[in-house]
Amino acid sequence: MKFAIASDHRGVKLKSRLVQMLSDHGHDVQDFGPTSEESVDYPDFAVKVSKAVSCKGAERGILICGTGLGMCITANKFRGVRAALCFDEVTAEMSRRHNDANVLCMSADLISEQLIARITEIFAQTEFEGGRHARRIEKIADVESSSDCCGS
Ligand code: RB5
User: Fold this and answer.
1) Active-site residue numbers?
2) Which atom of ligand 1 is least distant from the CA of 65?
3) How remote is the CA of residue 66 from the centroid of ligand 1, in Å?
4) What's the 18 CA to ligand 1 centre distance in angstroms?
5) What pLDDT, in 10s, does the model give residues 99-112?
6) What's the CATH number for 2-146?
7) Can you name the residues that pair with 63 across neighbouring β-strands?
8) How many CB atoms within 10 Å of residue 6?
9) pTM for the structure as a whole
């Protein structure tokens, strides 16, 4: 699978390990940075991954910052992006099975490195269930295309 990945300064070490892990598992991984622990602004990096997913340059995205929150908020501004903040095995699995999440956001500060690796594996392996969940995803897309006008 083709992945796009990025972090801010807080997630940069974990990002390198995930790039290695996903590559070892046979995935094609594009690393959008950063490359050092120098302080950066998370939206700048969330935008790179979200654009890649939105424009179909990548099938899935991964974003890591201190809490995962800023990355998730930014990513969900992009058309077609369904970003999920996952913090355990259940949220990782359900984000795929029910929400067809295509961007995984995680906290570098609040969960262990081992759990981050496990969540990423689940996110990569779990299929969307479709059925009634597909109808709900279509409704999200409808909201996306009609939400530019306040009051509608
Ligand atoms: C950076 O200090 C921090 O705000 C960022 O990593 C993230 O937690 C934002 O949501």
Assistant:
1) 65, 98
2) 6
3) 5
4) 19
5) 999 999 999 999 99
6) 3.40.1400.10
7) 6, 105
8) 28
9) 0.96
